[in-house]
Every structure is written in structure tokens, then in C-alpha cells.
Amino acid sequence: MKTFALAAALLAGTALALPASAVQFKMARGQDATTLDPHAQNSGQNFNLLHQIYEPLAHRDNDAKLTPALATSWKLTADPTVWEFKLRPGVKFHNGNAFTADDVVFSLTRAKGDKSQMKGLLTSIESATKVDDLTVNIKTNGPNPLLINDMTNLFIVDKQWAEANNVVNSQDFNAKEETFAVRNTNGTGPFVLKSREPDVRTVMTANPAYWGKGQFPLKVTEVTYSVIAAAPTRVAALLSGEVDFIQDVPVQDIARISETNGLRVNSGAENRSIFFSLNVGDPDLKFDTVEGKNPLADLRVRQAIDSAINRIAIQKVVMAGQSTLSGTLLPPGSDGYSKELDTVTPHDVNKAKALMKDAGYESGFGITMHCPNNRYVNDEKICQAVVGMLGQIGIKVTLEARPMAQHSPQIIEGAIDFYLLGWGVPTFDGEYVLKFLYHSREGKGAYGSYNPKYSNPELDGMIKSLATETDKTKRDATMAKALKIAKDSLVHIPVHNQNIAWAMKATYDIPVQTENTLYIKYIDVK
Amino acid sequence: MRDTPTALPRVSLQQKLFRLWDSDIAYSFRQSPVTMAAGFVVLLILIGAVFAPLLATQNPFDPSGLNLMDGKTAPMAVNEFTQNSYLLGTDDQGRDILSTILYGSRASLLVGFAAVGLAMLIGVTLGLIAGYRGGIVDSIIMRIADIQLTFPSILVAMLIFGVFRGVLPVQSHATLAVPVLILAIGFSDWPQYARTVRGVTMVERNKEYVQAARVIGLAPLTIMIRHVLPNVLGPVLVIGTLGLALAIIAEATLSYLGVGVPPTQPSLGTLIRVGQEYIASGEWWILFFPSLTLLALALSVNLLGDWLRDALNPKLR
Amino acid sequence: MLAFVLRRLFQAILVMLVVALVSFSLFRFVGDPISVMVGQEATQEDRERMRQELGLDQPFPVQFAAYVGRIVQGEFGISYRVGRPVIDLILERLPATLELAFCAAIFALVFGVGFGVFTALRRARFSSKAIMTFSLIGVSLPTFLIGIGLIYLFSVELKWLPSFGRGQVTDLGFWTTGFLTLSGLKSMVLPAITLGLFQMTLIMRLVRSEMLEVLRTDYIKFARARGLSDRAVHFGHALKNTLIPVITIMGIKLGSLVAFAIITETVFQWPGVGFLFIASVQSVDIPLMATYLLLVALFFVTINLIVDMLYFIVDPRLKSGVALARH
Fold it and tell me: How confident is the model at residue A10 (pLDDT cuts 50, 70, 90)?
């Protein structure tokens, strides 16, 4: 009788345990991915969602370590311009199609296409060829020792699927193109898209055929990815227990959340620099009060702005301590970073005023600053604070804050003069910063696509050489020199590297990933 | 020379004041402590707003006068970096909350009064015309009023903002905020006045004294201003008072939705918008004091409006 | 009755035409109508061809007629912001807003009339005064602040109700509803109260003052003198007569609920059309703004038509053919 009861209890226990193993992970972010097309935009907020569904050949794990995903290994062939990638066998796309070398070749071509904004990362790739079903050779237009670093967000799509659905080309994001791939996915990733309402919610379920079973925790069976734009509502959703995880925690709420029973906040430095960019290239600015010339083209004005910014005050008050001051756009931990490069300009209003006087702007001038208001930690507040600081040296700034979706196209178009931008470095290499932000403009998505019209042929030459230089010492030397020139040019004025804070129920302990990318497959449940 | 002209009005002013003090309205005012308190609060906020540049310790509209290091100082506490202390604390940009409230009330009241004035002007004029002329003119005006009622002020304001953003250069966005708010709120509130005035006018028009005035050949405009207008003033004043509270709240709401005045030139609404981000974080004063001011102002104005309506409508007393 | 209905219907169409004119002017003069139809990448010839196809070289009235024609066929243009047909975007979001507005309207009506009658009949009671005071505070605070306050009280502190979104919705093909699941219903409570509170207060105050006026009239005194019970006097006579002016105002007030939902949807991350409208205003998405305008007008006109029909039920004089001017 007793044994029977025990057996019954055990049975009941297992019966209970079964549904408990289904883990629904409800998370909320402040803004949604703008598209599901994996090659349409080079944007962290898109990658954050797409990494659950699609996979690159290799990605950076929670410790930012390069980790094989769809490739199992890669090595340079005898030819220093050709890399050989061995692909993971037995991988299937969500629709059941087998993953082969054809898909890799196709995806690379797609991402290098005209409409893709990923092409800027892939400029060094000349061609990709299939060797056999599970081997791909990638030829670069010169030796590129860091090729794999450029490909950690390069998602592999199914060739057959893309052809069948007329999405061989990437969506043209800036032209608001609408294609099948914008709302439908077919990846190899640990989660399958179940439903999606843009700007509301995306539901994903665990991929039953995922290749990584047994290698990763894979505890989560269903993900609900909600968008809650209003920060107090987002925090309230976590405090009330409606969501398990919020990825954008307002800095002012970190203390309150960590003090709440049953909740946890993990924070750490994000691999992302926040800075102001200044149009130095146009002969006259559209958004200033100075007629006939461009005040920002004068280095002394840029130096004045640099000295007028009180970075410590921004860190203490606006960021509530959640930042590291910076003197360069390259975050610590990347190749090319040095302490010396990262010397922070001290706050010195008198020096700034003197520089303004030198430049002939003693009585100041007026200018419009454009600022995103939903992308970076307290972006609009940083801008507002800087408006006040610049007011102290006579620069009367009109602040125009708007959502990132309107901000970034205007930067790429070169339509604005003075703006805030954040730059993450997914390659963990200084070239990424130099190439997009300091090299002369060479077209959308390519070299210099985020450059505020600065042009320095000498620097351009150095930047181009970085892509193909195989001698590490030589490359390091060139990069150090280039980064120094870039820093001193002050076309971008660094403010800080922001910290990221992730808040969650205490049953989870998800470490922050330095690119602010959440990999749900790594999530363990206590 | 100097004494005679000034002496006369002074006496008459005193008499007028005395008569006012003795009137029914003043009596009912004196009899209601709640109304008197409301009147006092409104007066206090009005004085604060009008004399803000004299009373405030800093000008929050001038960003160059701010020290970010003062930011988020608790009320009466001493800031650890600057050693400054503020009665009501500071916000996240280092602005003294008391000063921002004084200046903010100024912006809110300006928008409120101007919007109500505009709505009143349009509404009373159209209401008088519709009620006096009747017929097709009346039909057209009242149909337009119907259509206008379809669109609440916040919607009209957002549309105007949307259009302006598309048409005008970006530099002018900040300076346009206040006029756009006034236009939007003013334009969407006039039908209420028009409806009321039209109703009263129709009644008055058929009264004997108005008909008599018409017979002796007075111009319609004179009749309307001299005989009809005084009769509609009471209800218009009531609607206007309640409308003032609504306009102030509408301004706050629009600022919350991101189409109001910019955070660099705060109104009460913008202050609340900024403050609501701190609702859970412990910096309660950033939200609390501006909200309290808005509540006190709108509540008092509402109470005055209620009282005025009851006082002007003796049946309800 | 038929003549009355037809006249009202005609007026409703007139109102819609005027709003369409405003919305068309937005299209024609603020946005670039060609860019609405084709992408930025289109060539000059594409644009010229489009210009002729759309008849933009025609005189204004002809263009307007064509616009109305397109609207009637359900063509509202392509959103600048998202690049999809505006009508699809709006139809996806419409159920959320309409369900919210419906619940808010019911809340405002039931509690507005209930509290109004109660405070009129029991003027001296403490509870009456408390209700009146609370209602005044309710209209003296901006809606968004009340919404945030409700979230903190009922979601964060008490953990009774959800703080955002619609909860679990059921897709019926043409309509997504939150009414069929518990989480959907629970999600509705706070937004509906937030949205309806202001209208509730207005209705309550209106019912109260009308009721007080009616209670003073002679026929109520006669009814009492006839020995009718309080209940019969209050609800049979007084309330019925109170409701006639109240219904007119309610039509107007409830009609604007869809527009007011903009605020509530922002606070509660409610996936409705108001949310869409805010995004479109920020990005000057003219086609969406213009269509939203038409939608709000349509809702308003419909509500008012219903109200006009209600007149017949409440006011017997209309049935006998004595058409009452509405104003």
C-alpha cells in the first residue's frame, strides 16, 4: 500500500515535472527590429532578434569569444587571400531544407548586393565558391586576416527558399521596400518564428530539429518578444512579473529593480561608443546661423566643443554612473585600443571660450543638433545636457530629437550637420571604426557611409591598407597612427562607452553580452 | 491739474469694488470656503507665473545657466558635488524644480489663456451670428461645429504638428510649439461656445426689447453687442473657466505625446513627461511637484468654474 | 421616421465629404503624392507617368472626385514610413482600438449615469460628495498620469492586472479579439478605465445637473402628489427626461474616444491605431495621417447616427412627426 502511494506520488511528480520543463521566456525591449530581412540593415537591434532565428558561420558568445556556429572550422589556404570554411553537417533550415555550401555562397552574394546595408562589412570579399557540399572557399581582394570578424552577424539564408519567394535580393530598407523576407524567416537557428506583429510582439518556438541539442542549455521552449516603448511601462511590466526579462533598463531604475525581491540586474560595459558627429565637409551648413561658411570645418571650433563637454557630469547625473568616459571611438578590448588613445579631454570652459574667440566666433553661433530618442541609453538627455554645456561657450543649439528610424537614414544621406550617434564594434577591431566613420564617403553601406563628410586621402590610404595587411606588427602600427589622426581630427567627438543593464527574474542569471545581443539558447533556468 | 482727473475715477473705482463686494456673486464666493481656497491657489500660481523671472532662482529656459552636476538633488538636500541645495530639488538636467515650475506654469497658463481666448472669440462670434441670423447661415455654422467636434484638440494639434514638421524647416520646430498649441487647442474648442451662445441668442432675439431695438432701427451689430452679448457672458465665462483647465491639461498631454513644447523650454506638461520616467526610481520629486502644481491649478480652476456656474444659475443653489 | 433618418444620413455623408476634403488637402499639399505611390528610387519618367495616371494634371475638383472614388474603393495609398498599404496597417490595428473604445464607452456610460443619478438623488450624503470630489480630481489630472498611476497601483504594487498590451488575443480571421481569453479581458481593465474616466466624469456631472433640474419641475411634483413611489418618480419620470439632452452630449463625447485612445495606447503599449498615428505624425507619414482622420470622422458620424436613432426611443414627440431641432 505504502509503495503504491509512493509510486503514485512519483508518477504525479513526473507528470508535474513534464509541463514545468516547458519554459516560456517573456522578454520586452524598447524598440522592435525594423525588418526580419537579415541583410537589410546593419543594426544591433535587428541582430538581437535575428540571432535567435538565423545563424552566421560564427558568432561571439556571452564572453565575446568567437564561437563556431554554422561553420565548424576555418583556415587560410596556401593562398593568403583564400579562406576555407568547413560547414556543419546535418543542419536543416526551419522548412526542412538541408544547409549546404550553396546557401553560404548565396547568402554572401545577397549580403553584398546593392540594396543590402551589410555590404559595407564585406567589402574585402571578392568571391565565394563552393568546394563541396560542406566546404566553401572565400576569396578576398587582398589578404584579410580578420575576415571571420566581419561575418559574426552575417546570417545564412536558404537559397531555395529565397528563390521560391522572390527574395534573392535584400530588401532596400531606406526605400521602404516590402518583400517576403521582411515578415517571414527561414533560418537554421534555435528558434522558429511563430507569429509577428511589428512593434507589438514576436513569438518564437524552440526548433525541434536544432543541431545544437545537447551542446547548449536550450531550456527555453517559447519566446515572446514584446515591444514596450514607454520606459515606465516596461519597468512596470517586469516589476509586476508580466515579463521575465527586459533588455533596455532605464539607468535610473537599476537600483530599484535590484533591490526588489525576486529580480536581478546584470550590467557591464557595452562594446559601444557614444559620440557627436560634426559635418566638416560642406562649405556651408544647412542647419546653422553662420552664412557662407561652415563653423564646424574649423578645427578650433571642434576643439572648443570637445572641451566644453563635461563628460564627468554626464556620467554622474545622466548615466547614473553606467558608463565609461572615452577619448576615442574604439571601445576597450578591441584591437588597436590603447590607454593613450583613450585619453579623455578634460572639461575646460575657459579653454573652449578662448578657442571660440580664436576661431572668430566669440559671440557664438546657432546650430541644430539632431538626436535619436529611443536608441541609446538616455540619448536625448545626453543631447539636452550638451546643449546646455555648449550654451556656456556661446553656441546656441536647437535640439531636434526623433526616433532612430528617422535618424539613421539622414546620417547615411549626409543630410544633417551635428548629431549624436552610437557605434558598436562587432569585429572587435579598430578598422571597423575607421572604415565607416573616418574614410571618405564611397556610397551607401560602403566605406565612409557614416562619415560626416570628412576626407583625408592620407588616412584613406592607411585605412584601405588595414584590410589586406597580414603583417600584424605593421598593421598595428598603421592602425595606431590612423586612430590617432582620426582622434585628433575631432570630426567625431567621443562622450563615453555606455553600459548595458539587463534586468530579469532571479530565476534567471543571464550575463550581459558586450554587443548587447541576447542569445536565448544559452539561457539556463535555475 | 493732476489731481482732478485721477481723483474722480478713484472714487468710482472704490464704489465699484464696494458694489462688487456686496453683490450676489461675491456673497456666494464669501460663503464658500472651498471656492475661496481655489481662488487663492489660482491667484498664487498666477502671481508665480507672471513674476517668474523675479521669483525664480534660475532661468530654466537658458541652458547655459545650468550646471548638470546639480542634477537629481533631493529637496532640501545638499548636492554632494556642488554643495548646492534646493527647496524642491532639481531634475535630471540640474534645473531647480521650483524655478521650472514657476516658468512652466507660465508656459502652461499662456497656452491655456490664449487658447481659451481664441476659442471664445471664434465661438462667441459665430454663435451670435448663427443665433441672430438663423436659417442657412445658422445651418452652415452649426454643421461646421459638428465636424469640428469630431476632432478633439489633441488630434487637431497632432495633425497641425505633423503638417508643420513636413512643411517647415527643422530649426523653427521649437519656436513654433507654443503658437501651434494655442491654435490647435483654440480651434478645437470653439463649438462649445458657439452652441451655447447660439441657444441664448435665439431666445433673446425673440424677446420684446430686442424686437423693439430692431424696430427703432438699431444695426444688428449694435443689438448683438449691446443687448445679446451681456446675456451670454455668464455661460461663456463658465465654459471658459472649465475650458481653461481642459486647455492646460491638453497642453500637458500633447507634451507627453512628444508634440508639445520641447524639454529645453519646459511647460508643466513637459516637466511631468520628464518626471514620469522617474516614477519608480526614487527621484519622486521630479514628478511629484510639477504634477501637484498641475493638479492644484486645474482643480482650482474647475472648482471656480463649478462655483461660477452655480452662482449664475440661482435655481441650483 | 424615414425622412428623418434619410436627412441624418445625408448630413453624415456631407460631414464625411468635408473631412475627406481636409484629408485630400493633406495629401495634395503637404506630402508628395507621387512619392506615396512609388518609391524614392523611381525615375523621372515613372513619376510623370504616375502623375498622369493619378490625374494630378487635372483641375482640383476633378482630382478630389477621383480621390473620393479611390477611397470608396478602399485605396488609401502606401505608408511613407512602412511601405505597406495604409488600409492594411489600419485594419490590423483597428480591432484593438475599437474594443478598447467600446469597453471605455460602456464603462463611462454605466458608471457615469449611475453615479450621476446617485449623486443627484443623495446630494447631502458623504459618499456623494466624495464621488464629486474624486471626479473633479479625475478631470484635473492628465490622462497619461492617471494611466501610469493605475499601472503602478494595480500592476506593480497589487499585481492584479497586466500593465501592457492586449494579452492573449484570438484571431477570427477578419478580427482579433481580446474578449475570449481571461488574459485579454484582464488586459482590458486598466486601459478602458483610463480612457473612459474623463468621459465618465463628464457624463456623471451632466446627468447630475440635468437630474437636479428635472426633479425641480412641476410634473415631478405632480407625480409625487399623485402618490407615485420615489422609485417610479426617479427612474420612470426623472431619469427618462434627463437622458434626452444627455444622449446628445454622450454621442459627441463617446465619438471622440477613438481619438483620445492615442494617449491610452501610448501609456499601455496598446497595439491600436492611435499608436500607429503617433508614429506617423513623428515621421510625417501623410497617407496614414489622412486615413486616420477619415477613420475618426467615420466613427464619430456612426456614433451620432446611432444617437439620432436613440432619440426616437427616448423622445416620443419625434415619433409623432414633430421634428425637433437638435441644437
Answer: very low
Residues 199-218 of C with CB under 8 A from B: 209, 212-213, 216
Q: Residue A94: is its pLDDT beyond 90?
A: yes
List residues bridging with C171 in a β-sheet.
Answer: C176
If one compares C153 and A408, the residue with the highest pLDDT of the two is C153
Query: Is residue A251 a contact partner of residue A319, using CB atoms and an 8 Å limit?
Result: yes
For A38-107, give the DSSP string: TTT---HHHHHHHHHH---SEEE-TTS-EEESSEEEEEE-SSTTEEEEEEPTT-B-TTSPBP-HHHHHHH
Identify the residue with better confidence: A350 or C15.
A350
- Once rounded to an integer, what is the mean pLDDT over residues B268-275? 87
Query: Which domains does chain C possess?
Result: 2-72 (no CATH), 93-319 (1.10.3720.10)
Q: Which three cell numbers stand for residue B199?
A: 441657444
What residues of A are in contact with residue B72 (Cβ under 8 Å)? 317
List, by residue range, all CATH 3.40.190.10 domains of chain A.
2-244+507-522
Average pLDDT, chain A: 89
* DSSP state at residue B265: S
Query: What was the pLDDT predicted at A17?
Result: 40
The answer regarding whether domain A270-498 maps to CATH 3.90.180.10 reads: no
Residue C326 has pLDDT above 60, yes or no: no
Angle at C135 between CA C240 and CA B180, to 5 degrees: 105
Kindly report the nearest CA distance between residue A240 and chain C, in angstroms: 4
Report if pTM > 0.90.
Answer: no
Alpha-helical runs (H) found in A327-403: 349-358, 379-391
Amino acid, res. A9 = A
In the structure, what pLDDT confidence band is assigned to residue B20 with cuts at 50, 70 and 90? low
* Residue A63 CA neighbour count, 13 Å, CB half: 2
- Alpha-carbon distance of B53 to A12, in angstroms, equals 74
Supply the DSSP string of A386-426, one letter for each residue: HHHHHHTTTEEEEEEEE-HHHHHHHHHHT--SEEEEEEE-T
Q: Is A201 helix (H, G, I), strand (E, B) or coil?
A: strand
A2-244+507-522: CATH homologous superfamily?
A: Periplasmic binding protein-like II (3.40.190.10)
Interface of A with C in 235-294 (CB under 8 A): 236-237, 239-242
Secondary structure of chain B: what % helix, strand, coil (to 5)? Answer: 80, 0, 20
> Chain B within 8 Å of C145 (Cβ-Cβ)?
yes
- Which residue ranges does chain A devote to CATH 3.10.105.10? 270-498
Residue A390's closest chain B neighbor by CA?
B64
Strand A492-505 and strand A245-246: the pairing is antiparallel
| Residue length of chain C | 327
pLDDT for position B119? 93
The DSSP line for C153-217 is: IIIIIS--S--SS--S-EE-SS-EESTTSHHHHHHHHHHHHHHHHHHHHHHHHHHHHHHHHHHTS
Nearest-angstrom CA–CA distance, B108 and B115? 10
Q: How far apart are CA B70 and CA C90, in angstroms?
A: 46
pLDDT tens, A191-225? 999 999 888 889 999 999 999 998 999 999 999 99
For B300, the enclosing helix (H) or strand (E) is helix B284-312
Residue C324 has pLDDT above 60, yes or no: no
**pLDDT, tens digit, for every residue of B51-74?**
988 888 888 877 777 788 888 888
CB neighbourhood size of A97 (10 A):
15
Average pLDDT over residues A68-74: 94
Q: Are strands A220-227 and A23-29 parallel, antiparallel or unpaired?
A: parallel
Select the residue of C140, C293, C300 nearest B298 (Cβ to Cβ).
C140
pLDDT of residue A43 exceeding 70 = yes
Q: Mean pLDDT throughout A364-379?
A: 90
